[in-house]
Amino acid sequence: MAAVISVAMTFALALCQLSRAQQKDDIHQAMIQMQARPALQLEQLRADQQLWQSTHQAVELNGQWLTDQTIFLGNRSHHGAAGFWVMTPLKINAQEAVLVKRGWVARDLRDPTLLPRLVTPTTGVVVQGRIDLPLSQWFTLGNSTSSDQGGDAKKPRIQSNIQMKDVETETKLRFVATVLQIDANSDGLRRDWPDITQTSDKNRAYAWQWFALSALIPVLYVWFQWIKPYAKK
Q1: Backbone phi, then psi, for 33, in 5-degree steps?
Q2: In Å, how far are 17, 111, 223 from 217, measured between CA atoms?
């Protein structure tokens, strides 16, 4: 009975891992299809606010950079190098804005709190990007805001995390989405973002391990319950 239950459980776990792998493949395929769609213009997004929920959808936005609200997210590595994600709000109308992940910049190796100098255009801003997932929150100890800016929320500053409600309070704007900028490298920023992948191969490897264990249990049962006892006789 224990052998039968063990086989059933390990076989079920293997099927579960295969199902999870297929789900990840489906999600990845949907992401690719979404990214291949024509970029949405700001007029289309204004007409249908639900389009802001279309994660990975390409967009073309024009507006005004709020450079004094730029945030440098610290401890963000890029191809093995330490640096910052540069997050700047883009004001798209009088009441709304998007938070743009503009790119990555290396930190000063001698002074990690020193802010890099960036060139930010003030007119004719057009951003090619994709609607991104909300930023995940990193674990931090104590206050995540760097003190090198003297606590002035009106200046670019280093932080570990971003709370969207705090940015809305500071700017008095409603943020409708987070956008990943995918233009060519410019403004001193790198935008060769890594591809988003779904690790379905790992689930398939787990599945084959469970299948192997499911096959091994009957072999061990037959050996210890039948072959070995009779061999001793």
Answers
A1: -65, -40
A2: 19, 59, 10
Angle at 73 between CA 186 and CA 166, to 5 degrees: 115
SS3 166: helix
Q: What confidence tens digit (pLDDT) does each residue in 180-189 have?
A: 999 888 888 9
In this prediction the pTM is 0.73
How many residues appear in the chain?
Answer: 233
Within 8 A by CB and 6+ apart from 81, the residues are: 106
Tokens of 131: 């609607």
Q: Which amino acid makes up residue 136? A: S
Structure tokens belonging to residue 181 = 């900028």
User: From start to end of the chain, where are the E strands?
Assistant: 40-41, 58-65, 71-73, 83-91, 96-106, 125-132, 157-159, 174-181
32, amino acid identity: I
CA angle 134, 135, 140 (to 5 degrees): 145
Kindly list the distances between the CA atom of residue 73 and the CA atoms of 31, 106, 119, 158, 174, in Å, as whole numbers in the listed order: 25, 11, 18, 6, 21
Which residues does residue 87 pair with via DSSP β-bridges, in sequence order? 71, 101
